[in-house]
Amino acid sequence: MAPRVTLKDIANATGLSISSVSLALRGDRRFPVETLTRVQQAARSLGYIYNQAAADLRTSRNNTVAVCLGELSNPIFNDMLITAEKEIDRRGKRLLLGISRESRQRQADFLKQALQIGCEALLICPAYETTKKDLEDILCHEGKLIVPTCLFFRAVEGFSSPQVVADEYESGRLAARAAIEAGHRTVYWLGGGHGTSPARLRLQGALDELAGCGLQPAGIIPGATSRAFGFEAATGILEERQSGEVAFLCFSDLIALGVLSACRAKGREVGVEVSVIGCDDMDEVKYAIPPLTTVHIDLDQIVAAAMKAALEGGQPQITAYKPEIVIRSTLCGLSPLASPPSAQSR
């Protein structure tokens, strides 16, 4: 971990006093423009982060953990927030919450703010399309993290910090395996395509599992993680396929809930000829009508491990926890495929 750069470091680099450096960084007009420029350039070169807290907190921790999430209209992020808040409270810390709304610019603005405030640690669920460079430009100096940081739920390839996620390839594989073992030959994938590790890996796991049984998806339809998308996508498919078995593998439970509504609107009985399988196992889906078959992602375990890695030190590596399939009423009991290959045999 790179040591935090102080005003003294800038003073040594510029030949000025610490008090002069402090004033110059605030743009004090009593200094010539050349001096202000020299101090600011030295600060940037050294990787100094201006701390808006009191001077005695500039080089110490302030007991605040910053958590950056995606979009609170998606209940999965509310579940993350509840778990994170409990973990932070248990450790006697304070929470600083940022909502990126899946915008890399909003994410960057929040991370800069968190650094300026002097947060003790950062937990980040990266926004759509976040790259290694996006994070390094803000959080690293000379290849080292400025503040302890852990990514969770979504991974960013090549970023050198602890990253705690679910085994999302296995999530997709489990969903497809459930449909195959129920006997489905007409399988659609709905959702994803957002440039995140779960979107890529869930789809790839499902495709590989289908291919292992000699099946191809009837369609892959990327789209928003929302009930509205699930409803619209499933409605279009059910209008084309007005009878016969079909399975919907949904990137998220939220999409799956929209699919259930579409099935009801089209008079198709879920669990009889139509299967719907979600992913995440949000708290509400066990109360859906009918209760949703889904892939359980242990958010409590992921968030707790991410908090531990950020606050107590963790290796810069990806830790992936195994998901589990949860069979409920939205899975059909059709005749299974003849001798489908098992996961162990491939």
TrEMBL record:
GO molecular function, one term: transcription cis-regulatory region binding
Keyword Iron-sulfur: no
HTH lacI-type domain: residues covered: 5-59
A Pfam match: Peripla_BP_3
Protein name: Transcriptional regulator, LacI family
PROSITE patterns listed in its UniProt record: HTH_LACI_2
Keyword annotations: DNA-binding, Repressor, Transcription, Transcription regulation
